[in-house]
Amino acid sequence: MKHNVLGRGFVPKKFYPRGAQFEPAFEDEKLYIERLLIEECARHNMGNLERQERSEAYTIEISKDGHALIKTASPLGALHALETFAQLFFAHSSSGSYSPYAPLLIKDGPTFEHRGLNLDIARNWISPADVMRTIEAMATCKLNRLHLHATDAQSWPIEIPALPDLAMKGAYSPEQVWRTEDLEAVQLHGEYYGVEVFIEIDLPGHTTSIGNAYPHLVTAKDVPWPEYALEPPSGQLRLNSSEVPPFIDSLLHDLLTRTSRYSSLFHLGGDELNLNAYLLDPTVKSSSHQVLQPLVQAFINHVISVAATHSLTVIMWEEMVLDWNLTLPSDVVVQTWRGSGDDALGAILNRGYKTLFGSNAHWYLDCGHGYFVDPDPSNPDSPIKSPYVDYCSPYKNWRHVYAYDPVVDIPQSQRHLILGGEVHLWGELTDTVNLDSMLWPRVSAAAEVMWSTPGKKPDENTTRRLADLRERLLMKDIGAGVVQMEWCLKNKGGCRL
Q1: What is the pLDDT of residues 116-167, one digit of tens each?
Q2: Fewer CB atoms inside 10 A, N or C side of the chain?
């Protein structure tokens, strides 16, 4: 703990006018915190919180004589408390570190149980080391779920020993594969930092990469993509083939046997299924929703049943309920993403399912960077034209992320079904080089929404708090983007309008 406090502080001169005396004089009499006591107490003593939130709650007390005490109900709460404790200290420009806040009493706990980041590691190469670094950054703002969107149409970077050709033929290259030991190391790293890492295998759509190894399982592969997919390349698992269920069994039993040691969750995807693709499926030969719906229901039922043998809670995207009207077990969690007028969150809650929020109108961090698709010079009606904005523009700046209030229109009678949310980074235009700046500090803004009460508007205090956290991320070698111009931080109140 001493290393964490002394090694992660920064000299906060950026937050004060030039020449200001902002730190205690080095020769002043000092009061030292010589011992930090952590006391585990009964969860019923942690206040009026739900069971899971209670287990993450904590108090920190630093008395006027320098005694420091943390009280918490669980190791996870202790991790959060230690993170907060470290952030109470700054480095002194001469030597050592100090806190300007003592004596103090902090009582803290989360609003939502599930506070996550959804990170796409399939469309561009994101290494295990990148993800471990991201986990450490997540811990600084008390995020506790990392959802790895592990496979997609473009590549299959996850090694499955029972089906070795999946990664051998589906990854971009042999060097761009997560080995089984890589995935385990990342999940274990998450445990150390209080972040549960779980996997999404997107099914039955977004599965073209399976066809690189098993072409007989996929339909609409190697055809012009615009009619058969939202983005290239097209290809989806066949819905009525007798060979697909055994493949699913081999895939999931291999993967989930390993991942279930570290997570109780499995995400099966279920989004953006293209109907036209099944006109080319020899086992279906139809794009009729009426024909396809029972086949989709049977497919999803099978995936859920396999996950159940591993005692996992299944998460899936909203389309399986809202577009396909599937009947699901009551313990399934439905993840919503369509914001702006679709009211997906309310629609899922009206059907009685537990849910996660994360509107694309607020929390899609890839938005506003432009399309990855090039205009076709032979197509005079190409939709890719100036100013070349993507479908979910504009860019979601950190204030917009922070201002998101997912529950503003949700009645109190349904809020118990909202487990929390996730902020999303899809990977078409993100790789290992720009990953940090695409995530931070915007993920930190989303983290505060999920930990505290949603609906607060960003103000100067928010800016300064986030800028402080940004400095601490930089000390951890996280390449977080700028929160505010330094002049504004030095001149408090000078950048209001």
Answers
A1: 999 999 999 999 999 999 999 999 999 999 999 999 999 999 999 999 999 9
A2: C
Nearest to 118 by CA among 368, 353, 337: 337
pLDDT in tens, 176-222: 999 999 999 999 999 999 999 999 999 999 999 999 999 999 999 99
Residue 160 amino acid letter = I
Percent of the chain clearing pLDDT 90 (strictly above): 89
Task: Write the CA distances from 364 to 248, 358, 440, integer angstroms.
Answer: 30, 8, 13
What lies within 8 Å, CB to CB, of 449 at 6+ separation is 401, 402, 404, 405, 421
Stretch 446-475: mean pLDDT, rounded? 96
Helix (H, G, I), strand (E, B) or coil at 419: strand
CA dist., res. 70 & res. 63, Å (int): 12
Residue for token pair 């030095």:
490
Which among 385, 338, 430, 361 has a CA at the least distance from the CA of 154?
Answer: 430
CA distance 460 to 468: 12
Asked if 145 contacts 421 with a C-beta cutoff of 8 angstroms, the reply is no
Both tokens assigned to 250: 């081999």
Across the range 407-417, mean pLDDT stands at 94
Whether the ω angle into residue 75 lies within 30 degrees of 0, i.e. cis, is no
Q: What is the average pLDDT across 69-88?
A: 95
Q: How many CA atoms lie within 13 A of 116 on its CB side?
A: 25
Instruction: Using alpha carbons only, give the angle 473, 474, 479 rounded to the nearest 5 degrees.
Output: 95
- Distance of alpha carbon 83 from alpha carbon 213, whole angstroms: 45
Residue 170 predicted with pLDDT over 70: yes
d(CA 96, CA 12): 14
- Name the maximum alpha-carbon separation found in the chain: 83
* Residue 404 pLDDT > 60: yes
Amino acid at 408: V
* pLDDT score at 414: 96
Burial of 290 (0-12, 13-18, 19+ CB in 10 A): exposed
- Whether 318 is catalytic is no
> Which tokens sit at 481?
């983007």
pTM assigned to the model: 0.96
> How many Å apart are CA 248 and CA 269, to the nearest integer?
14
Beta-strand pair 145-149/114-120: parallel
Q: From the candidates 136, 184, 272, 428, which is the catalytic residue? A: 272
Note whether 138 and 195 are within 8 A (CB). yes
Helix ranges (H only) for 313-459 are: 319-322, 344-350, 360-363, 398-403, 435-439, 442-451
Tokens 């991942």 map to which residue? 259
